[in-house]
Amino acid sequence: MSSASLKIEGPRNPHSKEYASLLYFLNQSYDFSDMRWFENDTSFFYGTKPEQLKNKWVLKCGETFASHVGVFPFVARVNGHPLKVAGIGSVATHPEYRNRGLMRKLMAHVGNQLVEEGYDLSILWGERALYEHFDYERGVFQDRFSFNRRFFKPLPLGKSIRPLKDSDWDELQKIFTRHDFHTNRNVDYFKTLHRRFSRGIPEPIWVMEKAGKIIAYVIVFKINEGYEVAEWGGEVKNVTDLIASVLPKPSTGNVWISIYPGCELYHWALENHESQIRTPNTCMVKVLNLGKVLKAFESQLQERYESHSLRDLGSVSLQLPGQKKVTLTFGSQLKVETGETSGKPIMLTQSQCVRLLFGGTWPSYELKLKDFELELLDSLFPLEWYWWRSDWI
Fold it and tell me: Residue 237: how many CA atoms within 13 Å on its side-chain side?
């Protein structure tokens, strides 16, 4: 049967009475035997509440779910500036309905919804070959470090560690929000992380105390090679002491941590790692509001502008199709301004924009620009940003 002859209903949001069959469909599509896998993995976003169902989009053929795309809303904080982010996940098509353009139809609908609802950018963790057709590009590259367990230093005197208690959630949230880059979370979201990472390890969240006050925490999970750290909070020295003390000490086996350049643990990792790789687990990004994104990073751009002694160099304008022109003005300070300004903008594709802002190469490698523009953009980009392993969807 061709896609044109299929009687497809949707795109629409599922009803609460369809929720159980939706979960069954997702597990069948991903070949998961655990019918609660999605609820356990990202339980904050799954359930029958209206705010949970409105972010799931489905196509049905009769009583059968044919395709699904989930939107996982975040508010990301970049040096105090909020960005409305749409995570994309749980993308699935029923085996009997694949190769008929259903996912393309659903992703196009969701893309239009994100623009209408005022999202600033969208992210997902998935295969580049699959999602580049929907204008997503790899960015926010990370390094994955391994550390030999035998060489970690013992816990310093005057500090103690213990598993998380129910009374600790508020303190963990306070520590987490001190990071330059973080997502807005409430305590209920934090509690779902314990459920998510407790598979394979009974106590995934540990805290360090000094004089009865929590000063650091880590979230860990079990992998085949040993243990991986999903998230941490606190001063670098306290976090590394906690990591060294909380994990079992086999004669062999490593601790793995995925760390982005710009993260406070990055320099420590460079000095103490056993191995380092540029992991392919990069974030796929689509910029929906270039002006808002660059404005959020304005303070970082200003720091780079000052460090390179760039002064009074005029301006450079950037623009994505269908979006407003964004101008970087280089005076006594760098300013990000959105709207009509004189001069012809540098037109970017979505792929070029993500590579410029969050890629792993110099802008000059991708863009054919004037020497003046290349000098400026190579000095300012790519930006430093990262997502926590615990935020992956």
Answer: 2
Same domain, 245 and 356: no
Structural domain tally of the chain? 3
| DSSP 3-state of 220 | strand
CATH number of the domain bearing residue 203: 3.40.630.30
Give the model's pLDDT for residue 222.
85
Q: In which domain, by residue range, is 74 found?
A: 3-119
Whether residues 251 and 340 fall in one domain: no
> Could you report the per-residue pLDDT of 92-134, keeping only the tens digit for each?
999 889 889 999 999 999 999 999 999 999 999 888 888 999 9
Tokens of 261: 């350049």
- The token duo for 324 is 């407003």
Residue 327, strand partner residues: 317, 337
Instruction: Judge whether 299 lies within some domain.
Output: yes
Of all helices (H) and strands (E), which one includes residue 210? strand 205-210
Q: Alpha-carbon distance 75 to 15, whole Å?
A: 26
User: What one-letter code names the amino acid at 317?
Assistant: S
HSE (side-chain half, CA atoms, 13 Å) at 92:
23
Quick check: bond before 95 cis, omega within 30? no
Query: What single-letter amino acid sits at 165?
Result: K
Tens of pLDDT along 87-100? 999 999 998 898 89
Instruction: Tell whether pTM > 0.85.
Output: yes
- Domain ends where: 103, 119, 135? 119
CB proximity list for 322: less than 8 A, separation 6 or greater = none
Strand partners, 390: none
Cα–Cα dist 124/110, whole Å: 13
Q: Are 56 and 14 in contact (CB under 8 A)?
A: yes
Kindly report the backbone phi and psi dihedral angles of residue 49, in degrees, each rounded to the nearest multiple of 5, phi listed first: -70, 150
The end-to-end CA distance of the chain, in Å, is: 33
Given the structure tokens 């999970």, which residue do they identify? 221
Alpha-helical segments (H) within the chain: 19-30, 37-41, 50-53, 102-116, 128-131, 169-176, 187-197, 236-246, 266-272, 290-296, 298-307, 350-358, 363-366, 371-380
Q: In this structure, are strands 81-93 and 64-78 parallel, antiparallel, or unpaired?
A: antiparallel
Token digits for 318?
A: 């950037």
Helix axes 169-176, 187-197, angle to 10 degrees: 100
